[in-house]
Amino acid sequence: MTLRVTNTLTGEKEPFEPRDPDSVLLYYCGLTTSDPPHLGHARGWVHVDVMARWLDHLGYDVHHVENFTDVNEKIVARVGEDGDSEESVARHYVQQVIEDMRSLNLGRAEVYPRVSEHVPEIVDLVERLVESGHAYEANGSVYFDVTSFEDYGKLSNQSVEDIESQGADTEGEKRHPADFALWKAGGVDPEDIADHQHPEAAPAEDACQTAQTWDSPWGEGRPGWHIECSAMSMAHLDESIDIHVGGQDLVFPHHENEVAQSEAATGQQFAKYWLHVRLLETEEEKMSSSLGNYFTVADAVEEFGPDVLRTFLLSTAYTSRATYSDETVSEAEERWDRLSRGYERAVEACDDVDAYAKVTDEELRSAVEDARDDFGAAMNDDFNTREAMTALLDLTAAVNTHVDSHDEYDSQGLRRAVETFEELGGDILGLSFGDDDSGDVSLAGDVVDLVLRVREQEREAGNYERADELRDELEALGVEVQDTDDGPTYRI
Question: What reaction is this protein's catalytic activity (predicted)?
């Protein structure tokens, strides 16, 4: 069965046909690193992770790029709270994102580009747009002329006349209200961060003094939000890519503007397939940092573990509405428990003395092959993880039926079931079937915490030499300890 994907650009579910039949260029709009990642972000991460895993399973050479937006007014708003400059705040949250990604068992993207390291590429792309007549300079800023791009609005299915404005129009600089900034003159205005600041942040004027700026042909300034993804995608993939993924809330204006500026600059189709992940909701609102109704990834992993969270996030297809609640998480816990117990029973029975080479259970073997077929059909139907997980639950039921109803087990049928759990549930859905390390990692963290508590007791007792020895011994084992005003922290 051919893979079919729902393309926002056409509004249709289409056969997937990459430009190169052997490889896939996939770009995912990553986070603005200004707040702790939450489960809404994790929904996108996990679904894109499974997309990349399935494409790899189909035999494609997958080139997966995901950016960090580390230059943004929201980051400046956190100065004094999570760092003493825009750069240090961004580094703080980039590190948090990386740790959270690893905690969710995400496969690594090929590269994670940051805006701050791609300013030359951004400036070059803006220059191309100015030279081709698609952009214009005004008082040191550069704006994209939406009326110069005939197809503007094709992704979000709206016309230029329907769009009232995009961003502030400083002193009437813009020719059309819908024109958007490619380059912003100067630094950050305190008024631009006032609505994003928390009480513990630095005064707005002081925070804005730490904002990064760069030289350009139009003077000192900062890149606009939309131009960054076009530049980084072109730098690490190509001027035309196969799949561009992002949250549903990015269709307009971010992705619409990416299409316009990229295709105006190159004359080529920017992305053939646009896939958008629906937002995670809680109490009928989207989960959002700005609304304060979020559950951080770090807290959720600590409370539920990565397998329950991945089960929760994948139990709804990426195009379907998903809701976080106690009930939906409890359902995911029960579902993961059934899957993991089914796998464990298959392993135990397969390794049991009563598993025989000549025992054949055609119902079990047929159920295994049905599960594999159903899983593949689901994934090829627009990465339908909900139905794919249902196929594994059906396999669990077949294993339980076999073990409960037989005194002698079909060793070959059970072995095939074990392989199916590990290949489809583990390699594709990223669940820890057959992975015995998860408990060890958790235990290691508990042991480190215990050693650090002992170290603190030694320091309080004045035994500084012994405290230093404990720290050195931890670091020799690969545990980096940092002493802060709030106590010691560590990373492995």
Answer: tRNA(Cys) + L-cysteine + ATP = L-cysteinyl-tRNA(Cys) + AMP + diphosphate
Asked if residue 254 belongs to a known ligand binding site, the reply is yes
**Domains detected in the chain:** 4-277 (3.40.50.620), 297-427 (1.10.730.10), 441-491 (no CATH)
User: Are residues 231 and 125 in contact, defined by beta-carbon separation less than 8 angstroms?
Assistant: yes
Cα dist from 490 to 68, 102, 144, whole Å: 24, 16, 46
Whose tokens are 């009480």? That residue is 199
pTM flag (> 0.90): no
- Asked whether residue 29 is marked as a ligand-binding residue, the answer is yes
In tens, the pLDDT along 142-200 reads 999 999 999 999 999 999 988 878 877 776 899 999 999 999 999 999 999 998 999 99
How far apart (Å, rounded) are the C-alpha atoms in residues 306 and 277? 20
Q: Is 315 annotated as a binding residue?
A: no
**Distances 199 to 77, 195, 291 between C-alpha atoms, Å:** 10, 11, 16
289 is in an annotated binding site: yes
Identify whether the C-beta of residue 316 lies closer than 8 Å to the C-beta of residue 386.
Answer: yes
Tell me whether residue 229 is annotated as binding: yes
Q: Tell me the one-letter amino acid at 133.
A: G
